[in-house]
Amino acid sequence: MTTLTGRGLHRGAPASVRFTRAPGAVRLRRRGVEARLAELVMDGSSRSTSATTRDGRIAIGTVEHLFAALGAMSIRDGVVVEIDGPEVPLLDGGAAAFLDALAPLELGPSPPSLAVVRAGTIDVGASRYEVRPPERPGEVRVEVEVDFDDLRLERHARWGGDAADFRARVAPARTFGFEHEVEELLARGLASHVARESVVVIARDAILSAGRPFRSDEPARHKLLDLVGDLYAHGGPPSGSVRATRPGHAATHEAMRRGLAEGLLMLTRTR
């Protein structure tokens, strides 16, 4: 059993995540109620992903960084994730703390529950998702292209499915926001308990960060991290390739639902 404690990004409330080895598919638990991924409805309309059961007995906000760690390690069985609080704690602003907490459990990787079976493109508003089947058995490839209209920031990031590479390069990428977004959150009484080391603020005249040095591709890598987490909610990252242009939480969930409905994607096992 491993426990992480902190505060949520959006509400600032105390929160904790506890990982416990247990047979069966990954389940989320809150207030004694458990649910598998397939029993959760994902919503990305509030700058993050929330997971809710249809009966409302479980409602957990900001699950994407937790899910990114589970997805990067291909953990689909053997653990119950218990959340205490309205949202998952922000911790280091990325997924590294979750990966490090999961590692001692020595949970074996499982194949993706999702596969790309036909090449195609899914447009959701300004976001585009290009998917193609794997070129070799077991291939997992996730790529993002973003455009922040800022020459200081790189536009591309990619990951080839290796957990060690994700931990070293993608997981440390911190949550970021633009100055006007942070001001808006603070005016609404949100994000007031965030540790400076866990976020990057992009202002017109400077890029503000504490702790480890900022690198120009960090926002793109964080977008990649978020995408991996959102794909995990649907059984991924899938076997095959996903290339997302200007991805967002709500757009990714809609794209995965459409991909399944249109036969571009297929579930290969129960989640």
Provide a concise account of the structure shown.
With 271 residues, this protein is an alpha+beta fold. It is 23% helix and 32% strand.
Descriptive terms for the model:
alpha+beta; 271 residues; five-stranded mixed beta sheet; lpxc deacetylase, domain 1; 32% strand
In words, what does this structure look like?
With 271 residues, the protein is α+β, with helices and mostly antiparallel strands. The protein has one domain (2-267): lpxc deacetylase, domain 1 (2-Layer Sandwich), CATH 3.30.1700.10. 23% of the residues lie in helices and 32% in strands. The protein is built from six helices and 18 strands. A five-stranded mixed beta sheet has the order 1-2-8-3-4, with helices on one face. Strands 10-11-17-12-13 form a five-stranded mixed beta sheet. A three-stranded antiparallel beta sheet has the order 5-6-7. Helix 1 packs across helix 2 and helix 1 crosses helix 5 (218-232). It starts with a strand and ends with a strand. The model has no long low-confidence stretch (mean pLDDT 93).
List the helices and strands and how they pair.
Blueprint: E1 2-7, E2 14-25, E3 27-30, E4 33-36, E5 40-43, E6 50-53, E7 59-60, H1 64-72, E8 77-84, H2 96-102, E9 114-116, E10 120-124, E11 127-132, E12 140-145, E13 156-159, H3 163-170, E14 175-178, H4 179-187, E15 199-202, E16 207-208, H5 218-232, E17 240-245, H6 249-261, E18 265-267
Parallel strand pairs: 3-8, 12-17, 14-15
Antiparallel strand pairs: 1-2, 2-8, 3-4, 5-6, 6-7, 9-18, 10-11, 11-17, 12-13, 15-16
